[in-house]
């Protein structure tokens, strides 16, 4: 390796993306193809799947076997949970969350989507836009994924027809125009034969866009982070027992958005007490400036009471401090939402008790129609009003993903039962 | 997501260089520190598993970054199989002393003496038996969270595991019924007798680990670097000749340059042929390798396609 290559290895951007598709859309084959053609599959993995392919009475290498992780799904031949894959090209490092297409497992797509910068939605060229495809686009928009790639797969089975591609693109564009998606790309591919995945291939010459991998390598992600609103949930207060640090109070956490400088005026929420930043520290170093998503320790000028769950913000730029707020909920549990029950609500570094005081409507993810319902069942999405025992410091999710999201936990079973996204007050 | 005005403002901050985009190592590091602080704050009695291996070496540095200048809010824990490489045990003790932290050792040897672990033969791999000693130690000290250095890129069962991974009262993992894990909001709730396994470097790859060790100039056990070693070829791998592994009549002992990519049970951890002595050389070799970490080095993972998954369900790391 040259010095330049070494430097490049250390200073690469990280792109997290999810893949979503219906059963048999060729999702596992696509991931296998990305890994295989970018030379991220190693020899022993390849010989293992060659062996398995042969044992199943097929020829060559079944790329979908690469992502089939668990015994149960190998038996059933389907993906049943979120699996994470890692690969790198000379331009970027990638984390793929492979999410299932099965209807009852929508919760897994929400899980994978929650940390993704980008979603690849697969559509089978023969089948066109299905209910599942609409649902996946809606979830991507709900969870605020900044970039969407619609990969029209199995183009080889429709004779690489430009008309088929165009009509799918037209139908899908009409659907997503109702959604909060602003950066949508369409690519015709054949994951099985490799056309337009890593290499252009010879069969889709009418398509003048870039292949999928090149798009993933170059799409602009630097501006996905909210850089304007400083939000610092206090995770941990550092008070060393060592007498040399008798007066030391380090407020530790990760900057979720925005930036902070030594000398900046800050407000602590929910108390509203104010002070100034005295020091920004990381291990063995201090800094003049820090920004999202760095983990740091802040020390402040005044001796005021700050504990875990509080939020430090810049004076003059504050989130909502509220015990009641509206949110979109995605229900994740087999036990339906029960308006009579209390749940734990975890938001940033704070866990409080809360309840759903009102369920406004459920969204039909196929038609986007709003229905009045008494409860939310597993994988259903709806708008609700929440009340919490103590105030939360939240922003609207579409302004700030990190401080607009929360989860709900069942008090009795301790299962994670809902994913929530805060809606702007008055909307 | 954001209106055009916000976007312009954000792009300006990026252009002015106030906001540089963090490198992948900086992003991974910050994520791991965030996870460690969440465990410390939300779990009542956590412990950090430290074996002296490269992944747990990285964990210790991340713990320093998360909690210094204070001491760690948890003890270190090692499950000693009695089959560990002496160089790694020496390194473990050296590093613990250097940090001034507390180390608890659970011993598979003791579990054997107490009749909790029954071996088929004295020299068989003790890798699988660690689970019993680990679960006994967790129960003895009442730990409600064990922080480990497992990574999702290591193995396909691990690829599906949560960062905060729930274990029932039998210490078992149910891969089909995991709690969904959203954003960076970790559900740490357990009932008495249940516990969490927490994997702060889930999203790191083998290459990331070596790059971080080089960046932070961390010490590592000597056997990670190329050295001359007496080995035999057994199955598809090399095995070091020790008091536990003796050549069979048909096997020839060779003295060749090797290094270890993982350090586990001496009877089933295979070195690879290598001349890489410096960290830069190890990184170059890791970036160019054509064989996976566990494929090259762990005989027990090759028993069947589901070996790791079965061990994990029983309570393994």
Brief account:
The complex is a heterodimer of chains A (427) and B (317). In chain A, 20% of the residues lie in helices and 34% in strands. Chain A is of the alpha+beta class.
- Stated plainly, the CATH topology of the largest domain in chain A is called Rossmann fold
Total count of helical runs of at least 4 residues of chain A: 9
In total, the number of domains of chain A comes to 3
- Largest interface, counted with CB-CB under 8 A? A-B, 88 and 77 residues
| Unreliable stretches covering 5 or more consecutive residues of chain B | 1-15
Counting helices, strands and paired strands, the structural category of chain A is alpha+beta
What is the helical fraction of chain B, as a range of percent? 25-40%
The tally of beta strands of chain A, per DSSP, is 23
Tell me the β content of chain A. 25-35%
Number of strands of chain B: 10
Termini Cα gap of chain A = 55 Å
Shape category of chain A: globular
Describe this structure in words.
Chain A has 427 residues and is α+β, with helices and mostly antiparallel strands. Chain A folds into three domains: 3-223, 3-Layer(aba) Sandwich (Rossmann fold); 231-314, Elongation Factor Tu (Ef-tu), domain 3, CATH 2.40.30; 320-425, Translation factors (Elongation Factor Tu (Ef-tu), domain 3), CATH 2.40.30.10. Chain A has nine helices and 23 strands. Chain A has helices at 3-10, 27-37, 43-55, 71-76, 106-114, 131-142, 162-176, 212-218, 401-404; strands at 13-20, 83-88, 92-98, 118-124, 147-153, 184-188, 231-233, 236-238, 250-254, 259-261, 265-269, 274-282, 285-287, 289-291, 295-300, 311-314, 320-331, 343-347, 350-363, 370-371, 381-394, 405-410, 416-422. In chain A, the strands form four sheets. In chain A, strands 7, 8, 9, 11, 12, 13, 15 and 16 form an eight-stranded antiparallel β-sheet that branches. In chain A, strands 2-3-1-4-5-6 form a six-stranded mixed β-sheet, sandwiched between helices. The longest helix of chain A is centred in the middle third of the chain and has 15 residues, at 162-176. Chain A is globular, with a radius of gyration of 24 Å. Chain B is α/β, with parallel strands linked by helices. In chain B, helix 2 packs across helix 3, helix 3 (54-67) packs across helix 7 (206-215) and helix 7 (206-215) packs antiparallel against helix 8. Chain B starts with a helix and ends with a helix. Residues 1-15 of chain B have low confidence and may be disordered. Chains A and B meet through helix 1, helix 3, helix 4, strand 2 and helix 5 of A and helix 1, helix 2, helix 3, helix 7 and helix 8 of B.
């Amino acid at each position: 390796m040259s010095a330049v290559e070494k430097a490049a290895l250390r200073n690469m951007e990280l792109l997290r993306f999810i893949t979503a598709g219906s059963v048999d859309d060729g999702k596992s084959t696509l991931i296998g193809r990305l890994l295989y053609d970018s030379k991220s599959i190693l020899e022993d993995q390849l010989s293992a799947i060659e062996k398995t392919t042969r044992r199943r009475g097929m020829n060559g290498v079944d790329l979908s076997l690469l992502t089939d992780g668990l015994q149960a799904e190998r038996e059933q031949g389907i993906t049943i949970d979120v699996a994470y894959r890692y690969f790198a090209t000379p331009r970027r490092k990638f984390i793929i969350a492979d999410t299932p297409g099965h209807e009852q497992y929508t919760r897994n797509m929400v899980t994978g989507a929650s940390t993704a910068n980008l979603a690849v939605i697969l559509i089978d060229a023969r089948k066109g836009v299905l209910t599942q495809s609409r649902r996946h686009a809606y979830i991507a928009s709900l969870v605020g994924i900044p970039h969407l790639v619609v990969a029209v797969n199995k183009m080889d089975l429709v004779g690489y027809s430009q008309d088929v591609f165009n009509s799918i693109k037209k139908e899908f564009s009409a659907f997503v125009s109702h959604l909060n998606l602003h950066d949508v790309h369409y690519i015709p591919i054949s994951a099985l034969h490799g056309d337009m995945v890593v290499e252009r291939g010879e069969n889709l010459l009418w398509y003048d866009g870039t292949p999928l991998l090149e798009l993933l390598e170059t799409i602009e992600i630097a501006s996905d982070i909210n850089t304007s609103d400083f939000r610092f949930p206090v995770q941990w207060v550092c008070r060393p027992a060592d007498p040399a640090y008798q007066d030391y109070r380090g407020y530790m956490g990760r900057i979720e958005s925005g930036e902070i400088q030594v000398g900046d005026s800050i407000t602590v929420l929910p108390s509203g007490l104010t002070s100034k930043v005295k020091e920004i520290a990381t291990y063995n170093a201090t800094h003049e400036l820090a920004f999202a998503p760095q983990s740091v320790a802040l020390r402040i000028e005044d001796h005021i009471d700050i504990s875990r769950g509080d939020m430090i913000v810049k004076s003059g730029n504050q989130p909502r401090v509220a015990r009641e707020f509206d949110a979109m909920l995605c229900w994740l549990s087999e036990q339906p939402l029960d308006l009579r029950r209390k749940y734990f609500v975890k938001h940033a570094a704070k866990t409080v008790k809360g309840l759903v005081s009102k369920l406004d409507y459920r969204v039909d993810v196929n038609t986007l129609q709003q229905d009045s319902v008494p409860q939310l069942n597993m994988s259903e999405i709806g708008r609700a009003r929440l009340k919490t025992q103590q105030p939360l410091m939240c922003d609207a999710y579409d302004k700030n993903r990190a401080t607009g999201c929360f989860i709900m936990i069942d008090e009795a079973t301790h299962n994670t039962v809902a994913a929530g996204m805060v809606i702007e007050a008055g909307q | 997501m954001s209106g055009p005005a916000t976007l312009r403002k954000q792009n300006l901050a990026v252009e002015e260089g106030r906001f540089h985009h963090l490198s992948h190592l900086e992003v991974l590091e910050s994520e791991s520190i965030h996870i460690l602080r969440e465990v410390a704050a939300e779990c009542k009695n956590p412990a950090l598993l430290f074996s002296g291996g490269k992944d747990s070496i990285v964990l210790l540095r991340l713990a320093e970054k998360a909690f210094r200048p204070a001491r760690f809010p948890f003890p270190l824990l090692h499950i000693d199989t009695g089959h560990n490489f002496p160089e790694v045990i020496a390194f473990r003790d050296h590093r613990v002393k250097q940090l001034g932290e507390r180390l608890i050792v659970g011993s598979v040897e003791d579990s054997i003496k107490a009749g909790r672990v029954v071996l088929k033969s004295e020299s068989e791999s003790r890798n699988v038996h660690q689970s019993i000693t680990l679960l006994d130690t967790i129960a003895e000290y009442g730990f409600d969270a064990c922080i480990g250095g497992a990574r999702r890129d290591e193995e396909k069962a691990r690829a599906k595991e949560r960062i905060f991974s729930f274990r029932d009262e039998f210490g078992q993992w149910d891969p089909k019924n995991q709690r969904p894990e959203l954003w960076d909001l970790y559900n740490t709730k357990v009932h008495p007798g249940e516990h969490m396994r927490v994997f702060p470097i889930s999203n790191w790859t083998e290459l990331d680990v070596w790059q971080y060790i080089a960046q932070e100039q961390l010490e590592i056990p000597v056997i990670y670097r190329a050295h001359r070693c007496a080995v035999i070829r057994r199955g598809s791998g090399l095995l070091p000749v020790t008091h536990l592994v003796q050549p069979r009549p048909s096997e020839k002992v060779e003295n060749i340059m090797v290094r270890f990519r993982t350090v586990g049970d001496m009877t089933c951890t295979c070195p690879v042929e290598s001349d890489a002595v410096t960290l830069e050389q190890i990184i170059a070799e890791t970036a160019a390798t054509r064989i996976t970490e566990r494929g090259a080095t762990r005989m027990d993972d090759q028993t069947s396609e589901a070996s790791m998954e079965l061990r994990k369900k029983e309570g393994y790391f």
